[in-house]
Specification:
Distance between the termini: 9 Å
CATH architecture of the largest domain: Alpha-Beta Barrel
Number of strands: 18
Mean pLDDT: 95
Largest sheet: 8 strands, parallel
Number of helices: 12
CATH class of the largest domain: Alpha Beta
Shape: globular
Number of domains: 2
Low-confidence stretches: none
Strand content: 15-25%
Strand order of the largest sheet: 3-11-10-8-7-6-5-4
CATH superfamily of the largest domain: Aldolase class I
Order of helices and strands: EEEHEHEHEHEHEEHEEHEEHEEEHEEHHH
Length: 465
Amino acid sequence: MKLLNALNLSGKEVLPLIEGGKGISVSNGISAGAFAAAGGIGTFSAVNADAYDDNGDLIPIIYHGKTRRERHHELLAYGIKGGIAQAQRAHDLAGGKGRIHLNVLWEMGGAETILHGVLEQVKDLVHGVTCGAGMPYRLAEIAAKYKIYYYPIVSSARAFRALWKRSYHRVQEWLGAVVYEDPWKAGGHNGLSRAEDPAVPEDPYPRVKALRDVMNEEGLHNVPIVMAGGVWYLRDWEHWIDNAELGPIAFQFGTRPLLTQESPISDQWKKKLLTLKEGDVFLNKFSPTGFYSSAVKNPFLENLRERSERQVAYSNEAVGDHTTPFLYGPRQRQAFVTPGDHAQVITWMDAGYTEVLKTPDNTIIFVTPEESATILKDQQDCMGCLSACRFSNWSQDESGTTGKKSDPRSFCIQKSLQSIAHGGDVDHELMFAGHGAYRFATDPFYANGFVPTVKQLVERLVSGD
């Protein structure tokens, strides 16, 4: 394994090892502070981060607003308070070592409000901000205002070129690095374009080489690229280190820091990670963001898959092939489906999936009464955690709606992620992870259920393992 030389990142020579930011409350001030104290870059999530009262106890998020807009503003207030708290914790634990970054998602509700609200209070405690899940054109401008470095997350050279041409070229002095996140391997939301096949992963080397070529065209030869997604053993990436074609390279680890003593996830979650097999993490498109995302196969995702499979096209009138009527709901409303679909509809309804919910795509799905009640309540309880939500049809713009029907094939991502981050059942909530998570079960470092400290993990990473 080559010697891993320090890089100048966010104004300081540090190990080119970065903790990937994971919301909600999965990368926090404790994990980030420990990663920085070990000589790398710790990243806490400012996506609806946990806040604490004067006694240090977690402040539960309880909404009082009667409208989505009112609850949205409550959520932002909670998020700002939590981001400030996590920054302070990270700063204190780092002890002046390493660097501290905060992470936000551009498509989260009120991303700019959260960034300004947190950075106005903690700009002297953090050194950089990473941002993905969308095209964060205004990221550079916001970072420059607070004199911290910005780290856009992209999945292609084309995406970075668009960001650079539109705004980043005006604020290049605060560009800390460009994070290339492999859209086939990274955990959480993934930046696959319509031109890319989710079932056919591409080699990241030529994609990162293309990104470097674009950066070199703009005079960014010395700005590092951060490789994120699919990185487990650095020895597997040795040919990337000190590679003249790629230029300065750092590596981001999102999944491995989940299994550390400082990681805030539950013991149940940690134990589950040690049991995963190859293929247990898969790309799906159930997220209300509309992005693909990578998560652990479990009954929660299986239920979403089955929900979408109980789906047929329908018409309110007999037209074309939709000639066979059926009645549904307490008012015995009538819909028309094809004769072939009608037999399947009767089978589903006889099995207890008697409730019919319409989708934005002129289809209907069939669910149990209990599941229907949960879906409808979750949609009504929407608190605007995204800039736009397929599940509830919320939009943070003035209209307050996407203008489309809410999509019952999706789910309330805020509800599920808050639950699993605070001890919820890992089988019945969304459980994000990178595609390499199965390696926990085969990596000898974790033999016999060993859970390292962050310091031990960083030492292991530097060794190549």
